[in-house]
């Protein structure tokens, strides 16, 4: 499987596609906004005019798009993958979407004698560029075996789940940690500022303690510098919190902490921070407390 189709060249998709090119794979790419494909075309990737055309040309298709609606569109839309698919083709979606979507698509592909796997990822664009994503993959085991070497170019750890929705759910559980951790850190920054404890000191003490997590240090640094350039959009964080809450509701599981977290991300999007990094939720907590970034504290 040296010829791969790749759809969705956003923050994550582009470095993933570049890594596959670097590893010697021949890529056929499509992106809704064609200009974003230019850097890849300059490096030898072939352009396709639609997901359907990608499917005509590739036996393995990877996708990395925003949400369930985008995935449905590229799979089942009027120029979607399913229109051009041939038997034995494998579509591996790596986006964060709903369990209903992945289960539905798995059935639709099976009816066409093709396979749909879900392989959502943990990690940001840097880890994508370095092949250090963590991948949760679910679906047909034979299809997984066939595409595993390609997934290993993108991720250095892979966990396989037999039922597709287990992989989908695992990603939603992982992202509920991310949403909670960023708010725990943000509220500590705001509280600390008010009482005269600097972010630097807080991060240093966290680093020396059992409370630390690598994410606290990396996000702590960018929040301290007030760098909210998007690595992961606030609107995508809200999407994932909503997906987790909906999936938990269907499973009859209350997620009381995540429900509170949701309100803060809704506020962040309502305040206009949707296109910034999700760590911009710090500004919501600052506004709630009336704390300014300059405040030196008591
Ligand atoms: N950023 C991260 O750190 C990170 C980490 C792990 C997982 N994820 C997940 O990975 C996925 C992609 O995230 P990202 O950060 O790369 O987002 P992004 O930069 O917004 O990229 C989204 C991609 O989806 C495409 N798209 C959106 N709606 C579409 C539609 N209706 N039809 C066709 N294509 C459509 C976009 O096309 P256009 O270029 O035309 O807009 C773009 O290529 C999301 O599910 C996200 O939750 C992100």
Name the descriptors.
298 residues, alpha/beta, Rossmann fold, N-(1-d-carboxylethyl)-l-norvaline Dehydrogenase, domain 2, three-stranded mixed β-sheet, 14 helices, 9 strands, 13% strand, binds NADP nicotinamide-adenine-dinucleotide phosphate
SSE inventory with pairings:
Blueprint: E1 3-7, H1 13-22, E2 26-30, H2 38-42, E3 46-47, H3 51-57, E4 60-63, H4 68-76, H5 81-84, E5 90-93, H6 99-111, E6 115-118, E7 121-122, H7 125-130, E8 133-138, H8 141-154, E9 155-161, H9 164-195, H10 199-208, H11 214-224, H12 234-250, H13 256-270, H14 281-289
Parallel strand pairs: 1-2, 1-4, 2-3, 4-5, 5-6, 8-9
Antiparallel strand pairs: 7-8
Bound molecules: NADP nicotinamide-adenine-dinucleotide phosphate.
NADP nicotinamide-adenine-dinucleotide phosphate binds near residues 10 and 232.
Explain the overall architecture.
The protein is of the alpha/beta class and 298 residues long. It has 2 domains: 3-162, Rossmann fold (3-Layer(aba) Sandwich); 169-289, N-(1-d-carboxylethyl)-l-norvaline Dehydrogenase, domain 2. 54% of the residues lie in helices and 13% in strands. It has 14 helices and 9 strands. It has helices at 13-22, 38-42, 51-57, 68-76, 81-84, 99-111, 125-130, 141-154, 164-195, 199-208, 214-224, 234-250, 256-270, 281-289, and strands at residues 3-7, 26-30, 46-47, 60-63, 90-93, 115-118, 121-122, 133-138, 155-161. The strands form 2 sheets. A 6-stranded parallel β-sheet has the order 3-2-1-4-5-6, with helices on both faces. Strands 7-8-9 form a 3-stranded mixed β-sheet. Strand 1, helix 1 (13-22) and strand 2 (26-30) form a beta-alpha-beta unit. Helix 10 (199-208) runs antiparallel to helix 11 and helix 13 crosses helix 14 (281-289). The longest helix is centred in the middle third of the chain and has 32 residues, at 164-195. The radius of gyration is 20 Å and the shape is elongated. The termini are far apart. The mean pLDDT is 97. NADP nicotinamide-adenine-dinucleotide phosphate is lined by residues 8-13, 31-33, 36, 64-67, 70, 73-74, 95-96, 121, 124, 231-232, 236, 240.
């Amino acid at each position: 499987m040296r010829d791969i189709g790749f759809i969705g060249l956003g923050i994550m998709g582009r470095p993933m596609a570049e890594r596959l090119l670097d590893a010697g794979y021949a890529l056929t790419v499509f992106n809704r906004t064609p200009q974003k494909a230019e850097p890849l075309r300059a490096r030898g990737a072939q352009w396709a005019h639609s997901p359907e055309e990608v499917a005509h040309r590739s036996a393995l298709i990877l996708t990395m798009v925003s949400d369930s609606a985008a995935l449905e569109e590229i799979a089942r839309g009027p120029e979607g993958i399913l229109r051009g698919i041939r038997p034995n083709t494998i579509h591996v979606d790596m986006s964060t979407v709903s369990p209903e979507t992945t289960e539905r698509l798995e059935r639709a592909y099976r009816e066409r004698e093709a396979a749909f796997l879900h392989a959502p990822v943990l990690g940001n664009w840097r880890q994508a560029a370095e092949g250090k994503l963590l991948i949760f993959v679910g679906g047909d085991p034979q299809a997984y075996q066939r595409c595993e070497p390609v997934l290993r170019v993108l991720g250095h750890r892979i966990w396989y789940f037999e039922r597709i929705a287990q992989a989908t759910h695992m990603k939603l559980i992982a992202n509920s940690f991310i949403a909670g951790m960023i708010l725990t850190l943000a509220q500590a920054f705001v509280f600390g500022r008010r009482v005269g404890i600097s972010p630097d000191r807080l991060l240093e003490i966290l680093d020396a303690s059992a409370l630390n997590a690598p994410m606290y240090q990396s996000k702590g640094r960018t929040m301290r510098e007030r760098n909210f350039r998007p690595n992961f959009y606030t609107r995508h964080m809200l999407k994932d919190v909503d997906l987790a809450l909906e999936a938990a509701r269907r499973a009859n599981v209350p997620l009381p902490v995540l429900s509170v977290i949701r309100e803060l991300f809704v506020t962040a999007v309502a305040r206009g921070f949707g296109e910034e990094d999700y760590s911009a939720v710090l500004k919501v907590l600052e506004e709630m407390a009336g704390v300014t970034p300059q405040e030196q504290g008591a």
